[in-house]
Amino acid sequence: MKQTIIFDLDDTLIHCNKYFHKAIDAFCNNMNNWFSEYSIGLLEIKSKQQEIDIERVVREGFADTHFSTSLIDTYCYFSKKTGRNKNKNEEQWINEIGESAYAKDLECYPFMIDVLNCLKEQGHNLYLYTAGNPIIQKRKVERVNIGHYFEERVFVTPHKNAQVLEGIIKKEKLDKNSTWMVGNSMKSDIMPAVEAGIKAIYIPGLFEWSYDNVVLKDEYLNSFKTVKSLDYLMDMFLEEQCKAY
Fold first, then answer.
1. What is the DSSP letter of 142?
2. Is 4-15+107-243 assigned to CATH 3.40.50.1000?
3. 136-146 pLDDT per residue, tens
4. Residue 218 carries which DSSP code?
5. Domain residue spans of the chain
């Protein structure tokens, strides 16, 4: 029996968050130096940046400017709080370090190509469903050369939630009984999937983000499986096929 498998992109198939964590660490270290006389610690700076970043994502979705803007807003917040004058050179550096998170060479997760090849050979229908700017996200797909696995079945949206996922399911006329969502985000991938009535596979990311910290209702706890890495999917969906016979 063919299954429909909907993959998330960032931090499921390719690395993403580690570049943002690196940029945040550089930002916080410089902020700590700039505001050293005001007794503002690294933890306070990092917490405020996360707070501002999450508020912006909730309000605007995963726009390509949200990260750099969250860094600038954090800088402005502490400038106002302390009365320290803002500096154009500092603001320019902050913009550059924010943009650097998007400019890194893309690194695929281990077994990505092996898994996609295996699932395609098994005859499953593969979809890609990712958040962000359509131009940037589709360019990522081209750069890692995985577009042929998904063809026209690529969906990019600023917000990932149950309503958007339901829309894709209806548009594509997918059978919920044989449709799966695979992703690293409990908030953006797993919770919307189980709320939409499909199954899900959770692959915890290597880098945590507080935005993803949600608790599923008890009724959904048996609606998803947790695996350690992508390669578990090859045997898992082979087993699904065997169950049909």
1. H
2. yes
3. 899 999 999 99
4. G
5. 4-15+107-243, 17-100
